[in-house]
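> example.struct
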């Protein structure tokens, strides 16, 4: 017979997920999927030339100074990215000449 700690099944599932560490490959795939999802969101509002790589370049730009943050912060940074933030990043990099060749 299974022993329960009194928590709901959803809470146990969330805890199991939180305790599981992702391999570097799984982490990169997850981040890539999130960036692609954000790029698709931008496509829906008319920014058709945005790629997942562009989103990651924008989000990860601030990590060069502080180092890579925990996964929850990366996820939040990707999902909360606004078009205005993205366009400011692109514009500043174009003025600086930092954008990679397309």
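> example.seq
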């Amino acid at each position: 017979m299974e022993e329960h700690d009194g928590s709901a099944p959803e809470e146990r599932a969330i805890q199991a997920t939180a305790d599981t560490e992702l391999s570097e490959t799984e982490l990169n795939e997850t981040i890539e999927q999130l960036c692609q999802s954000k790029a698709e969101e931008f496509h829906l509002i008319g920014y058709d030339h945005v790629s997942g790589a562009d989103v990651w370049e924008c989000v990860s730009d601030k990590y060069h100074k502080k180092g890579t943050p925990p996964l929850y912060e990366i996820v939040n940074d990707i999902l909360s990215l606004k078009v205005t933030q993205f366009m400011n990043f692109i514009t500043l990099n174009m003025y600086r000449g930092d954008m990679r060749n397309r």
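> remarks
The two ends are 60 Å apart (CA to CA).
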